[in-house]
Amino acid sequence: MSCAAPDQTAGIPVGVDVSSQAVVQGKVCKNNEPVGGAFVRLLDGSGEFTAEVVTSPAGDFRFYAAPGSWTVRALSRVGNGQASGDVTLGLNQLDITVA
């Protein structure tokens, strides 16, 4: 048994019904290049920390959240950045460019 965050991949895992879940996913990039190993934090509408994952080597991240206003913030060795959006049921793409 592992306490680590699940692997972040580009595809939704088999068995996940996105019609009944709000999925926040995206890619962290700098100069159009993926940033692997970035820490991505999920913040709720009031700015409170909710969860954190580490991006895959391809810069991918994913969270399962309730519908509402969310911010994703990336912290990496090559820069920081964030994106926000109103999340609904289904797939919600929030890509982050770090500077």
TrEMBL record:
Pfam families: DUF1416
Xref: SUPFAM superfamilies: Cna protein B-type domain
InterPro entries registered for this protein in UniProt: DUF1416, Ig-like_fold
Biological process according to GO: carbohydrate metabolic process
Protein name: DUF1416 domain-containing protein
